[in-house]
Every structure is written in structure tokens, then in C-alpha cells.
Amino acid sequence: MTSVIWIVVAVLSTFTVGYVGYSRYLSRFVDLDDDRETPAHKYEDGQEYVPAQKPVLLGHHFSSIAGGAPIVGPITAGAIWGWVPALLWVAIGNPLMGAVHDFISLSGSMRHEGKSIGYIIGEYVGDRGKNMLLWFAFLTIILVLAVFALVVGIVLNAFPSAATASLVYIGLALGFGVYLYQLDGPFLPGTVVFVAGVFAGVWVGINNPIALFPAVEAGTYPEGTIVLLEFLGSGAWLPGAVMSTDAILQPNVAAWVPVILVYATVASALPVWVLLQPRDYLSSFLLYSGVGGALLAIIVGTLFGTSAQPLTIDPSIGAYMGFFGSDIALDARGITPLFPLLFVTIACGTISGFHSLVSSGTTAKQLNKESDARLIGYGGMLSEGLLASVAISTLAVAGATSAAAGGGIGGALPNFATGGGIIFTSFGIPQSIGAPFMALVLVSFLLTSTDTAARLGRYMMEEIVGTRGSGTTTGVSTSLGDIAKGRYTNPVVQSLIAYALVISGEWVTLWALFGGANQLLAALALLTATVWLANWDESKQLVSTGVPMVIMVTITVLGLSWVALWDNLYQGLILGNAGGLGSQISAAVQMGLAFVLIYLGLSLVRIGYGNITSVRGGKEPAVEPSDD
Length: 628
Description:
Elements: H1 5-29, H2 39-42, H3 54-65, H4 69-81, H5 83-110, H6 117-125, H7 127-158, H8 160-182, H9 187-207, E1 210-211, E2 226-227, H10 251-269, H11 276-304, H12 338-346, H13 353-361, H14 372-398, H15 409-424, H16 431-465, H17 480-485, H18 490-503, H19 507-536, H20 543-574, H21 581-616
Parallel strand pairs: 1-2
Helix pairs in contact: 1-5, 1-14, 3-11, 3-14, 3-16, 4-5, 4-12, 4-14, 4-15, 5-13, 5-14, 5-19, 6-7, 6-19, 7-8, 7-10, 7-16, 7-18, 7-19, 7-21, 8-9, 8-11, 8-16, 9-11, 9-16, 10-16, 10-18, 11-14, 11-16, 12-19, 12-20, 13-16, 13-19, 14-15, 15-16, 16-18, 19-20, 19-21, 20-21
């Protein structure tokens, strides 16, 4: 039987070459210079522009980009098409496309006042292109909120101990922010104390698990679980809740979703020093220990045979299971062709447009030095690729489970925690502790990404509507524009729309729609980078960003077309697989949204291509890159 260690070896080999060689070349290519003042210093305001130490900012950035997608996607893809196709796309695509995308997005934003990719492309192609990209990004953000809020609910339902641990860790993050920025406490001692508290929170969670509503099936929760809202009944009355063990939106999940969205709404409105920076720094220790610890455990367990069971690939996971995959289908409504669905399914494990929003939305506003962009941008994406390889490894160890109930998520989430618990037995850690720990690792990723997404959505709308005076408003106003972009009101609007998508019950197509939109956004971020480089200097080569852009546009337009025409129109509406009126409306809305995204994407490609050919053809002078 094939050892899981070969998955680790393959990824570490390609990633090492990429970071040591390609990222060094790219750093020289964009002329990183520590003598140049970064936007964090030039526009420091104590709210959004706040210089951060490299380890703190790396923690924020990695935590923000590494949501549930690089776990759910690779596990689902591996279960459908086999572990080899999933591994190859992560091992090759990440250093050549995903890490380039993140690094260039961060560098470009840094040279344009820490503004978004929408602002950057607008500098060169005008307001029409800017607004189209910003609307595309805003719609994608809402899909991100919907997907991640649901995934958090599912994890907390499966592992109630992670709910308690998450509450402890958020409380500690608030305390660390006060300690660090208000009390001016010493950094290193504070790190030791508060990080220890986060890990102690895992023990607290194991001994005091909590749920909001009773489990659908008795005995599902660990013994001693505290059910907080049991006095309100079973929870079957909650919007979208289904009283079935096969359902994704069980009452406890349906209850956690609005809680997570409220958390995202509040957290996204706070100054970054209050929660975002300290929480992400603390959670980075969870994430590093989860990802790095799992990789090391695979090596130790393989070499010394210390794991509870052999770390070999389970027979239920084939190396390659055909173009249309195994019976475990991503799309419960029909066939699942490897091209283009493998790529939009794996999504963030290889390349993610959401990362361009993080890079150009929050991270660029906190960079202390330009040289930090190499580790944080390129290295941060490689770290996410390592997370994807850990996800594939947990699937390989735990084996495939039926994923038909939720478009892959029903099998993906238990596999990650269960497989991770098995892997950590290599260190002598009982699976009963390792599995809840890995669940907390997953939740910490997701919580960070969720409120970061809400914050980024506000940034997008601020640039669409425009800012006056000091910029951000509270939104408590009679002006529709102020409400749309307000610090307190904009996240509410986003969360309400996301909630409506979640309770529609159409998770099967929602995941594919999210993947396609996210990947097409990545293509548009690469287009933005290519336009910037073309206008910066006519001697700049455009292959590093242009080729990945063309590949991603092709894949994602085909993927979104499949979601719209096959999943929603043919299977959902024509054949009637979208049962109730709510599901039919959801199918129609998702189909329309897919077409809107395709139209916006292709229109932007046409506008950007026109600018590039015009500049490189000598028809208009190149524009100097902004250093403001």
C-alpha cells in the first residue's frame, strides 16, 4: 500500500523550489525596496492602516486566507477523482499560479496606497472597469460569507468541544489586543501567556462541550455536552432546519449559522487592533501546530511506526478514479467531469481570488516593510498549499465516506478531524484529543476568514459608492449610499443575503458556484497585475501573470457555465430536482448569478486586453506605477 508520506514529499519538494527560486526572482521583478515607505506608515490611522510586525501580520494573513475551502475542496476532489489528480493540482499549480497571484496582488496594492485590485485596475482602464471588478468581488464576498458560516456551523455541530474552545480563544484575543496596544505590554511574555491560554482552551472545550440545540439523533454529542437552548425545543422551527441525520442544515447547524454571521458583522466593524490582529496572531500558533504538526507526525509515524494505525492510503481512495470520478459525487444531481470541476472544487488549495481581496484589502495596509511581502504573500500561499496537502492526507488515512448529502462537505469535515486525530497519534496524542484539536484548527481558520470577508466587502462597497471626508462612515444615516458602505450597516446587508443563500438548502450547487466565482476572481486579479505591469514598464515580461490568467479564465468560465446550465437549469428546473418553491427560486438566482459573474469577468478581460495591447503597441504612453 502507498504511504501517505509521499504526498508530503511531493508537496514539500515543489514548494521549496518555488520559494527559494521563483519567489526570489519575483521579489526582484517588482523591485521590493525597504527604503520605500509603505502605506501602513504613510497613512497610519489606528483603524485600518496599522503597521504590524512580520510574525503578527503573517499570522493575520495566513489565518484570513486559509479558510475551510483548502480543506473541504481537496478532500472532496480526492474522494471523487482520486488522490493523484488532487495532489498534482496542489503541488504544481500552487507555486506557479496561486503563490504568484497572492504575491503580485499584495505588491500591487502596496504600490497603490493599499487600495483594492478594483482601484488598481481603475487607474489604468477607467471607472467602468473598476466598478465591474468591485461588483464582482462584492458578490464573491457574499458567497464566501454564506459558505464559511455554514461550514463553521457544521464543524461546531460535529465537534461541540470546538465551540467552547472557540469562545475561549476569541476572549483571549480581545484580552491580548488590550494588553498589546492599550497597556503596551511586552510582546514575548504576552505571546507565551496568551498562546498557552489558547491551547488550554482545547482542554476546556473537551471537558465542557456546548451546543445550541439537541442533536437530531440521541447520543451524537459527547457525554456532558451543555445544550444552551434546549428549553426552546428541538429547533426544527428554525429557518431551513431539517430534522434528519442525513441533512446538512440540522437544527443545531441552522442555529450556529446566524450566530457566526452576527459575529462576523460585529468583528468586521471593530478597529483591526481590537480583535483582527491579536486573534489572527494567536490563531496562527494553532494553525502552524495543526498543519506543521500533522506534516511532522506523518514523517515520524511513517519512519518510526508510532501511529495507532499504518499511515497508508486507504483502499477506498484510488489514485485515479476516472474522468467522471467515483460514486461519491460532488454534484448529487448528475455527472462530475474532472475538467473543469476538479479545479473549481479544490479552489483555494491551489489558487484563490479571495486572497487578492485579503492581500489588497487588509494585509497591504499593515505591511511594515516591502520585503515582508515575499514571505507573507508568496510564503503565505504555500502554507495554504501545505494545509491542502494535510487535508488530502487526512482523507487518505481516514478513507472516503459518502459525500452525497452535502456536495462533499458531509464527508470532508469529519475526515479532516478524524484523519488528523489518527495522524497525531504518531506523537502519542490520543485520538480523542487530536480530533477535537484539529476541529478547532479548522474553526479558527473559518472564523478569521468570515469576518475578514465582511470587512473586505465593506471596503469594496466604499470604493463603489465613494468616500467623503475622512472616509468610512458608520452607516447610521438616511442616505442609501452611507448605509451601503457604512461600518456598521454594510456587514448587516452582506450577512442577511448570505443567510438567505444558506437557508435555501441548495448547498450542492452553492459550493460549485462559490468555487467558480472565487477562481474567476483570481483570474481577474492576475489580469489586474498584468495590466499594472504592462503600464509600469514596457520591458516587464507578462508571462508570469498572463499565462495563469488565461488558464484560470478558461477553467472558471466553463465551470460556472456548467453550474448554471447543467446543475441549475437542466437538473434543477427542467428535470424538477429542485423540489420546493424556495429551492427553485434559489436555483434560478444561482443560475442568474453565474451568468452575471461570467459577463462581468469576460467584459473585464476584454477591457484589460485592450489596455495591454494598446500600451505594448505604442498607441499610448505607459503609466508610471503609483508609489503613493
